Amino acid sequence: MTGMYYDARWCAPHGIGRFATEVRNRLSGWDDLPLDGSPTSPSDSWRLAKCLKQNKASIYFSPGYNVPLYASCPVVATVHDLIHLHCADETSIAKRAYYRYVQRPMIRRSPVTLTVSEFSRQEIIDWYDIAESQVVVVGNGVSEEFKPDEIALPSKRPYFYFVGNTKPHKNVESLVKAFAIVAEKYGDVELKLVAKPSDAIRRLVALTPVKDRIEWIRGASDVKLAEQYRGAVATVLPSFFEGFGLPLVEAMACGCPVIASDRTSIPEVVGDAGILFDPNNIDHIADCMIRVLDDSELRAAMKQKGLQQAAKFRWSQVGERVRRALQSVAAS
Protein backbone atom coordinates (compact mmCIF):
# COMPACT_ATOMS: atom_id res chain seq x y z
CA MET A 1 0.00 0.00 0.00
CA THR A 2 1.28 3.47 -0.87
CA GLY A 3 0.62 6.67 1.05
CA MET A 4 1.33 5.29 4.53
CA TYR A 5 2.78 8.17 6.55
CA TYR A 6 4.63 8.04 9.88
CA ASP A 7 4.94 11.27 11.85
CA ALA A 8 8.68 11.13 12.55
CA ARG A 9 8.66 14.70 13.86
CA TRP A 10 8.20 13.15 17.30
CA CYS A 11 11.54 11.31 17.15
CA ALA A 12 13.86 12.55 19.93
CA PRO A 13 16.08 11.10 22.70
CA HIS A 14 13.62 10.98 25.60
CA GLY A 15 9.94 10.59 26.51
CA ILE A 16 7.53 10.24 23.61
CA GLY A 17 10.53 10.87 21.37
CA ARG A 18 12.18 7.64 22.47
CA PHE A 19 9.01 5.67 21.75
CA ALA A 20 8.74 7.35 18.36
CA THR A 21 12.37 6.61 17.45
CA GLU A 22 12.34 2.98 18.55
CA VAL A 23 9.04 2.24 16.79
CA ARG A 24 10.16 4.00 13.59
CA ASN A 25 13.25 1.81 13.46
CA ARG A 26 11.02 -1.27 13.44
CA LEU A 27 8.42 -0.27 10.87
CA SER A 28 9.05 -0.94 7.19
CA GLY A 29 6.99 0.25 4.24
CA TRP A 30 6.15 3.61 5.84
CA ASP A 31 7.22 7.04 4.58
CA ASP A 32 8.13 9.84 6.95
CA LEU A 33 5.48 12.54 6.88
CA PRO A 34 6.66 15.34 4.52
CA LEU A 35 5.86 18.11 6.98
CA ASP A 36 8.12 20.28 9.13
CA GLY A 37 7.33 22.19 12.30
CA SER A 38 6.44 20.92 15.75
CA PRO A 39 3.58 18.40 16.04
CA THR A 40 2.53 20.27 19.20
CA SER A 41 2.13 23.63 17.45
CA PRO A 42 -1.35 25.20 17.75
CA SER A 43 -1.60 25.33 13.94
CA ASP A 44 -0.39 21.78 13.37
CA SER A 45 -3.78 20.08 13.12
CA TRP A 46 -4.68 22.31 10.16
CA ARG A 47 -1.27 21.97 8.49
CA LEU A 48 -1.31 18.21 9.05
CA ALA A 49 -4.74 17.86 7.47
CA LYS A 50 -3.61 19.78 4.37
CA CYS A 51 -0.43 17.69 4.11
CA LEU A 52 -2.31 14.39 4.24
CA LYS A 53 -4.76 15.60 1.58
CA GLN A 54 -2.04 16.93 -0.74
CA ASN A 55 -0.04 13.71 -0.48
CA LYS A 56 -3.10 11.46 -0.92
CA ALA A 57 -2.41 9.60 2.32
CA SER A 58 -3.94 6.15 2.66
CA ILE A 59 -3.21 5.95 6.42
CA TYR A 60 -1.56 8.25 8.97
CA PHE A 61 0.19 7.09 12.15
CA SER A 62 1.42 9.36 14.93
CA PRO A 63 3.56 7.98 17.78
CA GLY A 64 2.29 10.99 19.73
CA TYR A 65 -1.11 12.44 20.53
CA ASN A 66 -1.48 14.85 17.58
CA VAL A 67 -4.21 14.39 14.98
CA PRO A 68 -5.31 16.29 11.86
CA LEU A 69 -8.28 18.62 11.95
CA TYR A 70 -9.90 16.42 9.29
CA ALA A 71 -8.85 13.41 7.24
CA SER A 72 -10.24 11.16 4.54
CA CYS A 73 -7.81 8.37 5.50
CA PRO A 74 -7.65 6.32 8.72
CA VAL A 75 -5.83 8.10 11.54
CA VAL A 76 -3.99 6.17 14.29
CA ALA A 77 -2.57 8.19 17.19
CA THR A 78 -0.75 7.17 20.36
CA VAL A 79 -2.20 8.61 23.56
CA HIS A 80 0.46 8.01 26.20
CA ASP A 81 -1.46 9.61 29.05
CA LEU A 82 -4.24 12.03 29.97
CA ILE A 83 -2.25 14.20 32.36
CA HIS A 84 -4.02 17.33 31.11
CA LEU A 85 -7.26 16.03 32.64
CA HIS A 86 -5.73 15.64 36.09
CA CYS A 87 -3.10 18.38 36.45
CA ALA A 88 -4.60 21.86 36.31
CA ASP A 89 -1.15 23.47 36.50
CA GLU A 90 -0.09 21.77 33.28
CA THR A 91 -3.00 22.64 31.02
CA SER A 92 -4.52 25.71 29.42
CA ILE A 93 -7.74 26.82 27.75
CA ALA A 94 -6.17 26.23 24.34
CA LYS A 95 -4.96 22.74 25.27
CA ARG A 96 -8.32 21.73 26.73
CA ALA A 97 -10.07 23.02 23.60
CA TYR A 98 -7.70 21.04 21.35
CA TYR A 99 -8.34 17.80 23.20
CA ARG A 100 -12.09 18.28 23.41
CA TYR A 101 -12.90 19.71 19.98
CA VAL A 102 -10.10 18.42 17.71
CA GLN A 103 -8.46 15.33 19.15
CA ARG A 104 -11.41 13.71 20.91
CA PRO A 105 -13.71 13.63 17.84
CA MET A 106 -10.89 12.23 15.68
CA ILE A 107 -9.98 9.55 18.24
CA ARG A 108 -13.63 8.52 18.46
CA ARG A 109 -13.72 8.06 14.67
CA SER A 110 -10.38 6.23 14.54
CA PRO A 111 -10.47 2.44 14.08
CA VAL A 112 -7.77 2.05 16.73
CA THR A 113 -5.75 4.18 19.15
CA LEU A 114 -2.51 3.00 20.73
CA THR A 115 -1.33 3.52 24.30
CA VAL A 116 1.44 2.29 26.60
CA SER A 117 -0.20 0.90 29.75
CA GLU A 118 -3.39 -0.75 30.93
CA PHE A 119 -3.95 2.22 33.23
CA SER A 120 -3.87 4.65 30.29
CA ARG A 121 -6.03 2.31 28.21
CA GLN A 122 -8.87 2.43 30.73
CA GLU A 123 -8.60 6.20 31.05
CA ILE A 124 -8.81 6.55 27.26
CA ILE A 125 -11.85 4.25 27.02
CA ASP A 126 -13.63 6.23 29.72
CA TRP A 127 -12.82 9.80 28.61
CA TYR A 128 -13.18 9.35 24.86
CA ASP A 129 -16.20 7.08 25.43
CA ILE A 130 -15.04 4.47 22.93
CA ALA A 131 -15.18 0.69 22.73
CA GLU A 132 -12.53 -1.42 24.44
CA SER A 133 -11.62 -2.89 21.05
CA GLN A 134 -10.57 0.57 19.81
CA VAL A 135 -7.65 0.90 22.26
CA VAL A 136 -4.56 -1.30 22.02
CA VAL A 137 -1.76 -1.40 24.62
CA VAL A 138 1.62 -1.65 22.89
CA GLY A 139 3.77 -0.80 25.93
CA ASN A 140 7.29 0.59 26.08
CA GLY A 141 10.72 -1.00 25.90
CA VAL A 142 14.29 -0.71 27.12
CA SER A 143 17.04 0.48 24.78
CA GLU A 144 20.14 -1.69 24.48
CA GLU A 145 22.34 0.74 26.41
CA PHE A 146 20.47 -0.07 29.62
CA LYS A 147 22.02 -3.27 30.99
CA PRO A 148 23.56 -4.26 34.33
CA ASP A 149 27.03 -5.56 33.54
CA GLU A 150 28.81 -2.40 32.41
CA ILE A 151 30.60 0.55 34.01
CA ALA A 152 28.88 2.24 36.94
CA LEU A 153 29.36 5.92 37.74
CA PRO A 154 32.21 6.29 40.25
CA SER A 155 31.01 8.31 43.23
CA LYS A 156 32.58 9.23 46.56
CA ARG A 157 29.15 9.23 48.19
CA PRO A 158 26.11 6.96 47.81
CA TYR A 159 23.39 8.71 45.83
CA PHE A 160 19.73 8.53 44.94
CA TYR A 161 18.75 9.21 41.35
CA PHE A 162 15.86 10.89 39.55
CA VAL A 163 15.28 11.13 35.80
CA GLY A 164 12.50 13.25 34.33
CA ASN A 165 11.38 16.87 34.53
CA THR A 166 10.17 19.19 37.25
CA LYS A 167 6.57 19.72 36.13
CA PRO A 168 4.14 19.65 39.07
CA HIS A 169 2.94 16.08 38.43
CA LYS A 170 6.49 14.76 38.87
CA ASN A 171 6.35 15.83 42.54
CA VAL A 172 10.06 16.69 42.71
CA GLU A 173 9.31 19.06 45.59
CA SER A 174 8.42 16.10 47.81
CA LEU A 175 11.53 14.23 46.69
CA VAL A 176 13.77 17.16 47.67
CA LYS A 177 12.07 17.43 51.06
CA ALA A 178 12.31 13.68 51.66
CA PHE A 179 15.97 13.71 50.69
CA ALA A 180 16.61 16.48 53.22
CA ILE A 181 15.27 14.15 55.94
CA VAL A 182 17.51 11.32 54.73
CA ALA A 183 20.55 13.60 54.48
CA GLU A 184 20.09 14.81 58.06
CA LYS A 185 20.57 11.20 59.19
CA TYR A 186 23.26 10.27 56.68
CA GLY A 187 25.90 12.93 56.18
CA ASP A 188 27.46 11.37 53.10
CA VAL A 189 24.44 10.75 50.85
CA GLU A 190 23.61 12.71 47.66
CA LEU A 191 20.68 13.29 45.33
CA LYS A 192 21.32 13.51 41.58
CA LEU A 193 18.52 14.75 39.33
CA VAL A 194 18.61 14.50 35.55
CA ALA A 195 16.27 17.38 34.84
CA LYS A 196 16.08 21.11 34.24
CA PRO A 197 14.92 22.66 37.52
CA SER A 198 11.91 24.96 37.47
CA ASP A 199 12.24 28.31 39.24
CA ALA A 200 10.11 27.01 42.10
CA ILE A 201 12.27 23.92 42.60
CA ARG A 202 15.42 26.01 42.30
CA ARG A 203 14.19 28.25 45.11
CA LEU A 204 13.26 25.24 47.25
CA VAL A 205 16.70 23.68 46.85
CA ALA A 206 18.38 27.00 47.67
CA LEU A 207 16.57 27.01 51.03
CA THR A 208 17.38 23.36 51.79
CA PRO A 209 20.15 22.87 54.42
CA VAL A 210 21.64 20.04 52.31
CA LYS A 211 21.62 21.95 49.01
CA ASP A 212 25.34 21.21 48.51
CA ARG A 213 24.46 17.51 48.20
CA ILE A 214 21.87 18.01 45.44
CA GLU A 215 23.22 17.91 41.88
CA TRP A 216 21.44 18.76 38.63
CA ILE A 217 22.55 16.91 35.52
CA ARG A 218 21.68 18.07 32.00
CA GLY A 219 22.06 16.50 28.59
CA ALA A 220 23.09 12.99 29.67
CA SER A 221 23.39 10.47 26.85
CA ASP A 222 21.89 6.99 27.20
CA VAL A 223 25.35 5.63 27.96
CA LYS A 224 25.81 8.16 30.77
CA LEU A 225 22.29 7.60 32.08
CA ALA A 226 22.98 3.87 32.26
CA GLU A 227 26.25 4.46 34.15
CA GLN A 228 24.41 6.69 36.63
CA TYR A 229 21.56 4.20 37.10
CA ARG A 230 24.11 1.44 37.81
CA GLY A 231 25.92 3.54 40.40
CA ALA A 232 22.84 4.67 42.32
CA VAL A 233 21.54 3.32 45.62
CA ALA A 234 18.08 3.56 44.03
CA THR A 235 16.11 5.48 41.44
CA VAL A 236 13.19 7.39 42.96
CA LEU A 237 10.05 8.41 41.02
CA PRO A 238 7.59 10.28 43.27
CA SER A 239 5.08 11.22 40.54
CA PHE A 240 1.42 11.90 41.20
CA PHE A 241 0.69 10.80 37.64
CA GLU A 242 2.39 8.74 34.95
CA GLY A 243 1.12 7.16 31.75
CA PHE A 244 3.98 4.66 32.02
CA GLY A 245 7.20 5.67 33.82
CA LEU A 246 10.02 4.66 31.47
CA PRO A 247 12.91 5.65 33.82
CA LEU A 248 11.75 2.91 36.20
CA VAL A 249 12.21 0.22 33.53
CA GLU A 250 15.55 1.69 32.45
CA ALA A 251 16.73 1.66 36.07
CA MET A 252 15.63 -1.93 36.67
CA ALA A 253 17.32 -3.03 33.44
CA CYS A 254 20.57 -1.57 34.80
CA GLY A 255 20.23 -3.45 38.09
CA CYS A 256 19.22 -0.33 40.04
CA PRO A 257 16.57 -0.71 42.77
CA VAL A 258 13.47 1.45 42.28
CA ILE A 259 11.40 3.33 44.84
CA ALA A 260 8.27 4.91 43.43
CA SER A 261 4.81 6.34 43.93
CA ASP A 262 1.90 3.94 44.27
CA ARG A 263 -0.26 5.92 41.81
CA THR A 264 -1.59 5.50 38.26
CA SER A 265 0.50 3.26 35.95
CA ILE A 266 3.50 2.90 38.26
CA PRO A 267 2.48 -0.26 40.19
CA GLU A 268 1.73 -1.92 36.84
CA VAL A 269 5.22 -1.11 35.53
CA VAL A 270 7.16 -1.92 38.71
CA GLY A 271 5.29 -5.11 39.63
CA ASP A 272 6.75 -6.64 42.81
CA ALA A 273 10.28 -5.49 42.02
CA GLY A 274 10.23 -2.13 43.78
CA ILE A 275 9.07 -0.36 46.91
CA LEU A 276 6.02 1.88 46.55
CA PHE A 277 5.05 4.87 48.69
CA ASP A 278 2.30 7.44 49.11
CA PRO A 279 3.54 10.46 47.10
CA ASN A 280 1.72 12.85 49.44
CA ASN A 281 3.59 11.51 52.49
CA ILE A 282 7.12 12.96 52.62
CA ASP A 283 8.03 10.97 55.74
CA HIS A 284 6.98 7.75 53.97
CA ILE A 285 9.15 8.60 50.97
CA ALA A 286 12.11 9.28 53.28
CA ASP A 287 11.51 6.05 55.22
CA CYS A 288 11.56 4.03 51.99
CA MET A 289 14.80 5.70 50.89
CA ILE A 290 16.41 5.01 54.28
CA ARG A 291 15.23 1.40 54.22
CA VAL A 292 16.94 0.74 50.89
CA LEU A 293 20.06 2.71 51.87
CA ASP A 294 20.43 0.72 55.12
CA ASP A 295 19.92 -2.79 53.76
CA SER A 296 22.39 -4.21 51.22
CA GLU A 297 20.57 -7.58 51.13
CA LEU A 298 17.32 -5.81 50.26
CA ARG A 299 19.08 -3.91 47.46
CA ALA A 300 20.48 -7.16 46.07
CA ALA A 301 17.03 -8.79 46.11
CA MET A 302 15.48 -5.72 44.45
CA LYS A 303 18.14 -5.79 41.78
CA GLN A 304 17.33 -9.37 40.81
CA LYS A 305 13.58 -8.81 40.82
CA GLY A 306 14.08 -5.62 38.84
CA LEU A 307 16.08 -7.38 36.13
CA GLN A 308 13.30 -9.97 35.81
CA GLN A 309 10.64 -7.26 35.59
CA ALA A 310 12.59 -5.18 33.06
CA ALA A 311 12.95 -8.24 30.81
CA LYS A 312 9.21 -7.97 30.13
CA PHE A 313 9.71 -4.69 28.25
CA ARG A 314 11.36 -5.06 24.83
CA TRP A 315 11.23 -2.63 21.92
CA SER A 316 11.11 -5.57 19.53
CA GLN A 317 7.83 -6.65 21.13
CA VAL A 318 6.50 -3.09 21.09
CA GLY A 319 7.36 -2.78 17.41
CA GLU A 320 5.55 -6.02 16.62
CA ARG A 321 2.41 -4.95 18.53
CA VAL A 322 2.39 -1.62 16.68
CA ARG A 323 2.91 -3.35 13.34
CA ARG A 324 0.01 -5.75 13.95
CA ALA A 325 -2.32 -2.93 15.00
CA LEU A 326 -1.47 -0.84 11.95
CA GLN A 327 -1.73 -3.84 9.67
CA SER A 328 -5.26 -4.51 10.90
CA VAL A 329 -6.23 -0.91 10.09
CA ALA A 330 -4.61 -0.99 6.64
CA ALA A 331 -6.36 -4.25 5.81
CA SER A 332 -9.82 -3.05 6.84
Label this structure with key terms:
332 residues; alpha/beta; Rossmann fold; six-stranded parallel sheet; 12% strand; Glyco_trans_1; glycosyltransferase
Mean of all residue-level pLDDT scores: 95
Helical region count? 13
Q: How many E strands?
A: 12
Largest sheet: 6 strands, parallel
Give the N-terminus to C-terminus distance in angstroms: 12 Å
Helical percent range? 40-55%
Output the CATH homologous superfamily of the largest domain. Glycogen Phosphorylase B
Which of globular, elongated, flat, extended, rod-shaped describes the shape?
A: elongated
Question: Could you say what the CATH architecture of the largest domain is?
Answer: 3-Layer(aba) Sandwich
Strand order of the largest sheet: 9-8-7-10-11-12
Low-confidence segments: none
Strand content: 5-15%
What is the CATH topology descriptor of the largest domain?
Rossmann fold
Determine the structural class based on helices, strands and strand pairing: alpha/beta
Order of helices and strands: EHEHEEHHEHEEHEHEHEHEHEHHH
